[in-house]
Amino acid sequence: MDHLLAALADPERQRLYARIVLGQLAPREVEQVRRPLARLLQSGLVQRQEDGSLTADPEVFRRVRPAEPRPEVPRALVGFFARGRLTAIPVRPAVRHELLVHLTAKFFAADRSYTEREINEAFAEVHDDTAALRRHCVIEGLLVRERDGSHYRLAEAA
After folding, report:
1. Between the CA of residue 9 and those of 5, 15, 97, 132, what are the distances in Å?
2. Ranges for the DUF2087 domain (predicted)?
3. Where are the alpha helices (DSSP H) in 8-153?
4. pTM for this one?
């Protein structure tokens, strides 16, 4: 469900989605809305038909599993957070690993892949240095990055 909400979080994508739902997007306008449309297509909210037309799939909301409750911050990590934000990335490897496990469990689902932008948007909720968090997750083997860098996914549990 989070990926659907994230896709609709942007006002431009909201307006575009509404126009598609109402059938008000002319085929000649598709090229002008290419970027916001890509996110709606990727999320499954919008489908491209064989004739090139766009339709909204209301079933996408029924197929989504209810969100599992987010784990609270583990006791060992409480000191690294203030008002829901990470104040520092732990230096000690064991503590940093526990933090990264917590964050990946909190933000990412095992059954899908994420773009670098989606990873950054998720990590930005808790810390400004999203690149460092992303890099640590890859180094720790918690996130797997595609060779071309286009997508990330959770590593499979061993």
Report:
1. 6, 11, 30, 25
2. 85-153
3. 11-21, 34-43, 59-63, 93-107, 116-124, 130-139
4. 0.54
